[in-house]
Specification:
The longest helix has 9 residues. A six-stranded mixed beta sheet has the order 1-3-5-4-6-2. The termini are close together. It contains four helices and six strands; from the N terminus they run βαββαββαβα. By secondary structure, it is of the alpha/beta class.
C-alpha cells in the first residue's frame, strides 16, 4: 500500500486555507507517503485542472496534521507520481491543527478506511 489509508472525506475542522497563496506561508517539509491518509478516493480531472489546484498553482501538496495523523488534502497527483518514481518521501506544506475533542474524534477513526 502506498498510503497509510485511503479516506474519502476531510475529518478535521475547516481551516480556511483555500488558494495556493493561502498555503504559501507554510514552508515545505519532507513527508513519508506511508504516513499519509488521502481525503479523496479518486483522481478527478475537473478538480485537478481547477485554477486553485496544486496542478497549476502550488508545487507542493497540501497536508493537514490533525490529531496526530497526516491527511493529504490536495496534491494526490503529485503523491502518486512520487510513488511511481519509486520514492517514498515527498515535500509538502503541512498545516498543524489542534487536537481533536468530543464525538467528532471518535467518528474520525470510523470514517477512515484502512488497507486490507
Amino acid at each position: 500500500m502506498i498510503f497509510k489509508a485511503v479516506g474519502d472525506s476531510r475529518p478535521y475542522p475547516d481551516h480556511g486555507l483555500v488558494s495556493p497563496s493561502d498555503w504559501s506561508g507554510i514552508a515545505p517539509r519532507q513527508v513519508r507517503l506511508d504516513q499519509l491518509i488521502t481525503t479523496k478516493t479518486t483522481l478527478d480531472l475537473a478538480t485537478l485542472l481547477d485554477a486553485d489546484s496544486t496542478f497549476y498553482g502550488d508545487l507542493f501538496p497540501h497536508v493537514v496534521r490533525w490529531d496526530g495523523l497526516l491527511y493529504l488534502e490536495d496534491g494526490l497527483h503529485r503523491a502518486l507520481r512520487t510513488a511511481l518514481h519509486h520514492r517514498t518521501v515527498l515535500h509538502a506544506r503541512v498545516l498543524e491543527l489542534g487536537p481533536a475533542t468530543g464525538p467528532r474524534a471518535v467518528r474520525r477513526a470510523q470514517e477512515v478506511r484502512t488497507p486490507r
